[in-house]
Amino acid sequence: MQKASENVVRVPRTFLIDHMERDLPAPEIIRSTKSHYFVRPDDPKMEELLSDARHYADSTATDCEPSLRLAARALLSALGKPWLGR
Three-state SS for 30? Predict the structure, then answer.
């Protein structure tokens, strides 16, 4: 996952769909492709998505699939947010 531009970040569809299916606040989707959604990093609801990503990125979290863990780590890395690799 990488920044598509300075004002948009791409997020794997599977990660954002999982987040939204749990009725958690999600940033507005600006555009989409077959495998990604594009959102603004300054969206007020982005903090909730980042909180979710931090949880999934933690290798001690037992409640997520490996693909979600990788997507969470990629999202945090794309935004320059640290995650604890344990």
Answer: strand
